Amino acid sequence: MFEETKFRDKMLKTYYYDMYLHYGYKMIRDIISRSPY
């Protein structure tokens, strides 16, 4: 039971981390492409 909860927590963290990386990267790329430099 405890291990299952820990596992699910780890999965959620990985999922959110992937989402953060994906969208963060996209946002940064958009900002760079919009900047005048």
UniProtKB/TrEMBL annotation:
Record-given protein name: Uncharacterized protein
